[in-house]
Amino acid sequence: MTARRVDTLIDELVTEARPVTPLAPPGRRAFAWLVAIAAVGAIAVYARSDPGSVLERYSGREIQLALELAAMLATGVLAIVGAFMMSIPGASRRWLAAPLPPFAAWLILSGLGCYADLVRRGPTGLELGESWECLLFILATSAVLAAPLIWRLSRARPIDPQPVALLGGLGIAALSAFVLIFFHPFTVTFLDLAMHLAAIAVVVAAMGLFGRRTLASA
Amino acid sequence: MLAAAQRGDAEAYRLFLTSIVPFARAVARRRAVSDAAVDDIVQDALVTVHRVRHTYQPGRPVKPWLRAIVERRSIDALRRHGRVARREVSNPVAYETYADPQANREDAASSAATLARMTEGLSPGQKEAIELVKLKELSLAEASALSGQSVASLKVNVHRAIKKMRANFRDREG
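Output (structure tokens, whole complex):
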């Protein structure tokens, strides 16, 4: 009985099968997506931000700024590459952990920067800057990035969409925070950092919920 | 074989799907709670293979790709089983309207009438194919031996009959 059911199913699948074009390797697809987003991001930063004022704010802490930016970028890139990798059956689960070391480095570097600011400025280093705007910036940029990312990821029809959506969420949130640095009008305080983390958590949670559903129905 | 199937080679695809069944069964058996669950997982995995066959990259090993699909479907089946076991109690008697088993067969007459309406317009060959392959669940080889139709024409007749029955059903509902 069972063998017959499997035979019948195979017959049905063969009958309705049409030629398909194999997807490009996930690494190449992730690279193409990142290059497209980088091009748009570079135009936005060139047109709207003032890199001179960023360097001025971080005057004397250029190396820390460079490391912080590198950690943010590495977090975003590794999370996006991991999302594309995990959208294909058989990818290593290690991709889930890949963005965590640079994410930890980013938090440590930002925390140290906040601490240095606190020591230099005294209690004002604890104040809430214009954090709501930062939160809105990360949420809005992430929403803009989420649509093309979900569209590209859904091409693979992931068999386990949850980790794909979570990694994608971390990726777009980290890239949004990276772009934010170029528009940040003040040095980051502890409360600002907490707001940035809250925004990232909201983006990851939203992707885990809505992105997963969209990918599951692809 | 899968690379050829991606290009539209139906025979290569059939060969591929048939050849992966034992492997899928072996992977599923490690996680499944019953033999029936193994069969469900294998069928679920075959449908998933069909849905995501474009994600296989020609030239790469197929086993890790396939194992991931079967394991995923096994996990899904385990979760489903866990959910059902937590919330539902099996009570086959609840499906019976009357204590006397023969009395419950009253609906059989209306079911037969519905089936007769849905098979209206089918050719004799299509009716025979549907009856042997779908209703009596014979294998294609057995149905071919009984009916004298070739396996290929049985498949075509089943396919066309199902399309026609769907159309009949839609007309009736609409």
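Chain A touches chain B through 31 residues (CB under 8 Å).
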